Amino acid sequence: MTLPAQATQLALFDLDGTLIDSEAGILGAIEYALAQLGAPIPPRAELRGWIGPPLRVTFPRVLGEDGDAVERAVALYRDHYGASGWRDYRVYPGIDEVVAELARQQVRLAVVTAKTDVYAARIVASLPFGTHFERVYAVGAGSAQCEKAELIARALDELCVAPHASVMIGDRHFDMEGARANGVRAIGVGWGFGDAAELARAGAVAIAQHPHELVALCVAGEPTRVRSAS
b/e string for 24-62 if b means 16 or more Cβ within 10 A? Predict the structure, then answer.
């Protein structure tokens, strides 16, 4: 199926699993928090699925409905991540060229992430291409919930860009669903923490398998095609 091209004025990027591979830092902080509480630590293959949703959604998978334990785990995670874990990431190869080219074509750029705002801002500022992003939309430290749809809506409102002139680029279903809830084109990436089937079910209009595909999927004059999730 071919979708009509739209002149893209704004590209919203997820952070973890889209711009950067942050697995080592995130999982290390999760394991530290669970170990400090004497809780069982799931294998890393399982913990990879914890990257994306808010901590208060994922920690109960091990800690159950003990709210106090969950809050202690969140605090321990943040202590470890804030001290060193946030630096433990790598930029996906080719992403820097994508960001630079979109900026050259005068597409406005912002980050929309479920990560806590203080860490998100710190990481984006540390990126060699971080200055290309006008804003970072993230979750307040005291927030119990994170809805990508709300963050995307806030970005559209504050940056004064219409949904049809915007795209959301991410690796998990939260990104695709948040985009669709706002009438924004949803573009999935195949190198993050989700998979093609998850992204397709959530409404991705296209799934880039390599960063170099993103520019053509975003800029004006390039229709997007829904790809198979196989």
Answer: ebbbbbbbbbbeebebeebeeeebbebbbebbbebbeeb
